[in-house]
Design goal:
- The structure is a single chain.
- By secondary structure, the protein is of the alpha/beta class.
- The protein is built from nine helices and seven strands, in the order E-H-E-H-E-H-E-H-H-E-H-E-H-H-H-E.
- Strands 3-2-1-4-5-6-7 form a seven-stranded parallel β-sheet, sandwiched between helices.
- Helix 4 packs parallel to helix 6.
Length: 259
């Protein structure tokens, strides 16, 4: 395809089928709404199925699913549901995640295991469970996609005592490369997004207590918004990124790029 011949097709995801985990709020909801607006069929999975159902009711082409990806049983259950609903899967967005903040003197095993089990273990095993469905959708000219949501906290060091979260997101970034190397032979592109400050339940305390301080650190002087996130996620799912895999796109208003 020549870019000049059909520019619109470069970013076309109409008719594609996507699964977005943690899709009931924050970054996940932004991606769900962006994909649906671009014409994709979207399944949004969340532990709070009522919240997911509210989003789905407001977004044409979206379907809510219950999923607890903190356990292998929950991962297998979601994979089974998807296999019942669709024969193949074009896009998997591994967005579900958790954080934990606690001083190092008291940092608990629970705060470690909860975060690593969901952010890394759940991400890997869901990708593994959906591997065949993703491979069934991909072709050399149009690979299927795995998009992992990491964080700039996996790239830079902050003053927050969120040890397990930072470790998990660094792991996601490297795991993205490892998966990309293996899954490329199955026509599956694997990339990651590393967001900076975006509004979500996870960052609510920042907006309530530290917004002015953190905005001063961002060269663009603002937090990210739904257009920023949806645009990046659509690019990674579209033909425009067909030859891109194993990469992490940082969208943070310039924090890490100017450090």
């Amino acid at each position: 395809m020549s870019p000049s011949a059909d520019f619109d097709a470069l970013f076309d995801i109409a008719g594609r089928t996507a699964l977005v985990t943690g899709g009931s709020r924050g970054i996940g909801e932004m991606i769900v709404r962006g994909y649906a607006a671009a014409g994709a069929t979207v399944y949004l999975a969340a532990r709070n199925v009522d919240a997911a159902s509210e989003i789905a009711a407001d977004v044409p082409g979206a379907t809510a699913l219950h999923a607890d990806l903190s356990t292998l049983e929950g991962v297998d259950a979601l994979a089974a549901i998807m296999s019942e609903r669709v024969e193949s899967l074009d896009i998997l967005v591994n967005n579900a995640g958790a954080t934990w903040g606690e001083p190092i003197e008291s940092f608990s095993e629970q705060g470690w295991d909860k975060v690593l089990d969901l952010n890394v273990k759940g991400l890997f095993f869901l990708t593994k469970s959906l591997h065949a469905m993703l491979a069934g959708a991909g072709t050399p000219d149009r690979p299927s996609r795995v998009i992992n949501v990491a964080s700039i906290d996996g790239i830079r060091v902050t003053s927050f005592e969120s040890y397990s979260y930072a470790a998990s997101k660094a792991a996601v970034i490297h795991l993205t490369k490892v998966l990309a190397r293996r899954l490329g032979q199955d026509n599956i592109n694997v990339n990651a997004i590393a967001p900076g400050l975006f509004p979500s339940k996870m960052t609510q305390f920042i907006f309530e207590n530290l917004e002015e301080q953190l905005l001063a650190e961002i060269p663009q002087g603002r937090a990210g918004n739904a257009i920023d996130m949806a645009g990046t996620a659509i690019y990674l799912a579209s033909p425009a990124s067909n030859y891109m895999t194993g990469q992490t796109l940082v969208i943070d208003g310039g924090i890490t790029g100017t450090a």
